[in-house]
Amino acid sequence: MNDPVPSIALPDSACAERVGHYLDTLTKPPGSLGRLEALAVTLAGLTGEDFPGVTPPGVVVFAADHGVAEEGVSAFPQAVTAQMVANFVAGGAAINVFSRRIGARLEVVDVGVASELPPGGIVRDRVRPGTANLAREDAMSRDEALAAIAAGRRAARRAAEAGCRCLIAGEMGIANTTASSAMLAALTGAPVAELVGPGTGMAGEALAHKRTVIEAALAERGPDPADPLDLLARLGGLEIAAMAGAYLEAAARRLPILVDGFIATVAALTACRLEPALRPYLIFGHRSHEPGHRVALEALGAEPLLDLDLRLGEGTGAVLAFPLLEAATAMLAEMATFGAAGVDDSQAS
Ligand SMILES: O=C(O)c1ccc[n+]([C@@H]2O[C@H](COP(=O)([O-])O)[C@@H](O)[C@H]2O)c1
Ligand SMILES: Cc1cc2nc[nH]c2cc1C
């Protein structure tokens, strides 16, 4: 684990091709299950299994605070990060409810919350108590960004060692749409105006202020777009770096990854810049209402599974999409072939 980026194998194209042919022997017109068929082929290639499994999924929610919250860029105060972590521990947040529906192993990791947390129920892997205010100074040092990536990798390793067969990373961090927007503008060159959005509910003058803060931070921090670690350190967040690390470790272990919303996708894009071999392992759960998500998805050439106008984070959109992955694997494992079911496909044109 000394190298921040593990080595990631290419998907097994022979296995994917075999499964593509097998799908055409199942009792349905070829291709009629559309993107579900493409998902089955993808999952086979990633896992190297003709009958891939994705259960149980592992959900890891990384929590951290952002110094830039003091610029008034969120509709909620910084203390809400820790309060929501307590809610995760108590089992009352949306991610708890949805994770229970899919039988997920749910872990909450403190990689950088700025205040005290309840004694039990979370993994303590805090790199520092929140980032510095990126509008005034670098959010963190390069070493701290590396430490947060390593914390994310440890979490993915725990999920894999606990038997999880699909990884979902979620996040909780007041003001993290500001950090993510700044990173995305630097990563893609897209104008801030095109990607800045309400986050937890900024509108009107408040949203215009958020945009100004991001534009000024980009000008002052002067990140090197060709150096993803520099971007993470100057503009990022501890939970964003941890998610990037978790994705890289999961892919190194050949676990399919279901990506959540805006912040999770910026983390995924950053991780792909660190190691492009990650890209095939990413399946995109949903399109967030946050406008920057469109920009991030386009940069990755990604088409998400769901579009439900969600903008919560925590991993919720990915967890809601998980049953589609399950359906794709069940289709392969349980559907009858034309031959076995006695359905005649010999005259099909
Ligand atoms: O995942 C998303 O697409 C998403 C979009 C908007 C907001 N959020 C969540 O809201 C918080 C960040 O919003 P803000 O306004 O504080 O920057 C953070 O905890 C995220 O989990 C998440
Ligand atoms: C209540 C609340 C819950 C959240 N979950 C993820 N981000 C959040 C932000 C707020 C404000």
From TrEMBL:
UniProt GO BP: cobalamin biosynthetic process
Top-rank taxon, per record: Bacteria
Catalytic activity annotation: 5,6-dimethylbenzimidazole + nicotinate beta-D-ribonucleotide = alpha-ribazole 5'-phosphate + nicotinate + H(+)
CDD domains with a match to the protein in the record: DMB-PRT_CobT
GO molecular function: nicotinate-nucleotide-dimethylbenzimidazole phosphoribosyltransferase activity
Function text: Catalyzes the synthesis of alpha-ribazole-5'-phosphate from nicotinate mononucleotide (NAMN) and 5,6-dimethylbenzimidazole (DMB).
Family: Belongs to the CobT family.
Name under which the protein is recorded: Nicotinate-nucleotide--dimethylbenzimidazole phosphoribosyltransferase
Protein species of origin: Halomonas urmiana
